[in-house]
Known about the structure:
4-stranded mixed β-sheet, globular, alpha+beta, 4-stranded antiparallel β-sheet, 34% helix
Amino acid sequence: MAQTHLTESSHMTLDHPQDLLAAPDLTDLAVCRQVVRDRQAVLAKLSIKHDRVSNLACLLDPALLHVAGMKLKARAAAGIDRVKPLTYRQHLGRNINKLIEEVKHKTYQPSPARRVSIPKDDGSNRHLGLPTTRDKHLQRAVLILLEAIYEPVFHDHSYGFRPRRSAKMAMQVFKTWMAANGGAWVLEIDLSKFFDTIDHHQLLDVLQAKIGDRIILKLIKLWLKAGVMVDGVVEPTERGTPQGGVISPLAANAFLDSVLDQWLTKVYFPGLHGQAIHVRYADDFVIAFQDEDECRKALIDITARLEDYGLTVNQKKSKLTDMRIPGPGSSTLTGAVVDFLGFTYYWKPCPETGWELRVRTSDKSIKRFKDRISTWIATPDMDQEYLESMLEKKVKGHRKYFEADGNDLGAYLDPGIVLRSGSGLPPVSPSSLPLPGIVPRCPTADHAMRTHEVVPSSVQPASRHMAVLAVQAVPNVASFDFGTGGGGNSAGCSQEATHLKSNRLLFLTPAPGHLLNST
């Protein structure tokens, strides 16, 4: 293999880097950024021209670490030392010099990551490993170098955690290919706990095929083996790359690029009779084949390939779907669907063209959105204006991602949300309401459910803790029992919601088990 080293002119060093601010040519962040961009351009050219790139550790200097330090997310969660980025950056020059000295003298040792667990839709937990800010700082610097090397050679249909790429782009590429080819047989392969199960030896072998710098590889190995702090006890990490680590997404992308992307494109697809395509976003990918037999064989072959590299295919969640245009010679049912990146793909009859490939928000995505909103508004002691502002942003962000031709967001997402909060008691989750819905109790008809339109802000809730959410669609419901009040100043009421002009409903969601008192 050809191996190349950066030349003297392609990097920059300081004779006495006692402090970042003591170096006149590095006081200006703009200057540092330009130095880093120039180096990235050199690395990109070398990566395209040569199999391996070496002599990278010398680039971990004040210029690069200044840029990397300023890229730390200000609101990012802290690691086990509880030092947040804003605090860390107050002494950035000193921290930079310390990291440089530790790397130079091979005394750098990362801290264990802080374990944070997030519930998943299937009831299990996703474990995050949050490094300390200083470890994130050095990881960010290495990431800047490795991105410049890997970006030019990564497969074009890989979209996850890459600069200037997005899930929407991946969705559109898959949709365009399917529509242009009249659909296909589609494989949805689910990798079980991908980030948690990557084999360290396999990963380092993949990275070593492109990176020839032993110091950089040693740093990555240190981060992989740093362990995780759980309830005050450090647990070793023998497998996996921690979700939450700055370097983890690129390492995982490099692994799947070698194991899956390049193998499919250069080895597997050329031997097929029909056309095929694969599109990947991180560990979420679909593979489409024009030939049914080749698709069925590919499921076996690809599963074997992934398992050879220590990965586990979830057979229960993986599936093969005939997504060809419905018609003569096709077994596609009009109800056949494929889910990818939060969207459901389906064929819809079209008077002009016969059939049109459409997308809609998947049922799973709708449920996740409603549950997250319900959980978030239960956060105690939040300022009302902040709640309203942030809630609007969350809905706007959801709308921005899922906006697509033919996707009727209005079927489950009303144009607005009015929120009134104060007590901090958790509200009822809209997704937990029964059908046809029994809604929370309401003292008077003034607070009855409003349908089809957002409740005017002039309507004051009977309790300081009440949220009006336009996130629940309940079809074909004629009436609702508003329950009965009792005690205090609450007046008993049982009202039927009339004039139901649409199935877009706004739910009043007070704290469970608490009656609303009239004001």
